[in-house]
Amino acid sequence: MMNRYVLQLFAGAGATLVLLAGCGGSDDPESTVPQLGAASGATLQSCSTLPTQITYANTTIAAASAVAAGTVSVGGNPTPAHCLVTGQMFQRTSAVDGQNYAIGFEMRLPNAWNGRFFYQANGGTDGSVVTATGPAGPAAIDSALNQGFAVISSDAGHNASQNATFGVDPQARLDYGYQAVGKLTPMAKSVIQTAYGKGPDRSYIGGCSNGGRHTMVAAARYADQYDGYLVGDPGFNLPKAATANIAGAQAYAALATNPADLSTGFTQPERALVSNAVLAKCDALDGATDGLVQDTQACQAAFSLATDVPTCAGARDGTCLSAAQKTTIAQLFAGAKTSTGNTIYSSWPYDAGLATGGWAFWKFTVPLILDSGAVGVIFQVPPADPATFNGPAFTLGANVDTLVANINATNATYTESAMSFMTPPNPSNLGTLKNRGAKMLIYHGTSDPIFSSNDTAAFYENLRAANGGDASNFARYFAVPGMNHCAGGPATDQFDMLTPLVNWVEKGQAPDQVIASARGAGNPAGANADVPASWSPTRTRPLCPYPKVAKYKGTGDIESAASFTCQ
């Protein structure tokens, strides 16, 4: 149940690890990087005969079946005719927990192929082989499959019935962390070779949340395998983020008026109060009072929780925060800390998207039902016993200092810590990626409540520093104002970032902006309930490459991206 729920929200030992040379490539920001050529397509030779034609070590092909055009759609957009191939890799029985494991996958191979391969990195704790369409961005109305890519999706080495309990098996931990990608990638390329008579000319990997983490890990570990990396709201420090969210749950529990409901520690009216106060101080910083904070960095200097939000003189009534709330909330936004004052994960930006149901879900529900299992069973060493594990009790009763130690621990059975198998080794060292002409696009919602956009901005600053102060010739980061985790929030949260990535990789067209749309009533991918009624349902805005922000030109339609420029 836990795993199926998170899959709706979040989104390899078989392959040789790539040893990255140098600090980040060249220290010269003006140095040239190779320009990769465009992919060329081919026609699927046969679908029904693929199970007997595909041969790859440690791989079993279960079936191959033709799928008619329009059978599968993304955001109301029907996908073309294709062949669905399903199978498993590395079937085994664990010597540790006695459970059966395998890396389940499906591949969708278009009849008319564009010569490209897309690895769909999925979210949450994986565990399900979701439909391999390769979403082109959040709330997507287009997909890699629709554009003619061959796409793979996997369960990362465990099935949904195992939920967080797969963390008892050390190999399942490693597959989930990074080895499934390393094992599946060469297999998938071999399947493509068999199906089309040629391998992919260009390979891409992408996803949001844990899928963004998978992609960042691949950029560090498998930089020789992919040409384009599409990174969304990445949880690349996921064990730290989950632990910090547990610390946050304990803090909100101390404020709660109803111990059974953490949200009573920071209610929806109170969160709306803070969001509106942020808007009052920061909305106009970009030249337009439009319900969006474009200049997030300037906003942090302009807004003060202590002085810009009323302090309650009496009982809490939604029009003020108590002194205790202000102290606790300010500490959490500065970054939850251990008892010795060390930041567990990251700080968070004050933004306009705090009042939403999505924000509340990740802060008040997820620590009890998802972070608990992730930290308690998957990440810590040794894992808790699943037979007696109680998620809410674990979260509210855990010693956070102990959890921080445990996600960094190893023993004779669990020889890699969570901070080893879940995170990209030396994430600012992307010299192999850069020097072979590969590209990375990153996006992150500034109101993401589970993975902080501040953490992603800090990563990008480190990447810039490792490349002479400028990484923009191979990696660009786009903040999404107001967006919650991977979608939602008062935001323009619908955009295609795959097409700009392909154009950058194969044509050398670096994206100076990406146009994003609001999802009001009638949107083909579904309406976003967080879009304010005062906005046009089709509002557009440019997303800008960091450190630029969208500024109003001073004239023009406030609902149109054409009235804004990246500065």
CATH architecture of the largest domain: 3-Layer(aba) Sandwich
Number of separate domains: 2
Average residue pLDDT: 94
Level-1 CATH class name of the largest domain: Alpha Beta
Reported by name, the CATH topology of the largest domain is Rossmann fold
What is the rounded distance between the termini?
A: 45 Å
Gyration radius, rounded: 23 Å
- How many strands, which pairing sense, and closed or not: the largest β-sheet? 9 strands, mixed
Beta strands, count: 17
Q: Strand order of the main beta sheet, please? A: 2-5-6-9-8-10-11-12-13
**Content-based structural category:** alpha/beta
How would you summarize what this structure contains?
By secondary structure, the chain is α/β, with parallel strands linked by helices.
Task: Explain the overall architecture.
It is a single chain. The protein is 31% helix and 16% strand. The strands form five sheets. A nine-stranded mixed sheet has the order 2-5-6-9-8-10-11-12-13, with helices on both faces. It has a two-stranded antiparallel ribbon with strand order 1-7. The chain is an alpha/beta fold. It starts with a helix and ends with a strand. Residues 1-30 have low confidence and may be disordered. The chain folds into two domains: 2-236 and 425-480, Rossmann fold (3-Layer(aba) Sandwich), CATH 3.40.50; 240-416, no CATH class. α3 packs across α4 (210-221), α5 runs antiparallel to α9 and α10 packs across α11.
Write the layout of secondary structure elements.
Elements: H1 2-7, E1 42-43, H2 50-53, E2 59-67, E3 73-74, E4 77-78, E5 82-93, E6 100-110, E7 112-113, E8 116-120, E9 150-154, H3 170-196, E10 202-208, H4 210-221, E11 228-232, H5 238-255, H6 268-282, H7 296-302, H8 305-308, H9 323-334, H10 357-379, H11 391-397, H12 400-406, H13 418-421, H14 431-435, E12 439-445, H15 453-465, E13 475-480, H16 498-507, E14 514-517, E15 540-543, E16 550-552, E17 564-566
Parallel strand pairs: 8-9, 8-10, 10-11, 11-12, 12-13
Antiparallel strand pairs: 1-7, 2-5, 3-4, 5-6, 6-9, 14-15, 16-17
Helix pairs in contact: 3-4, 5-9, 5-10, 10-11
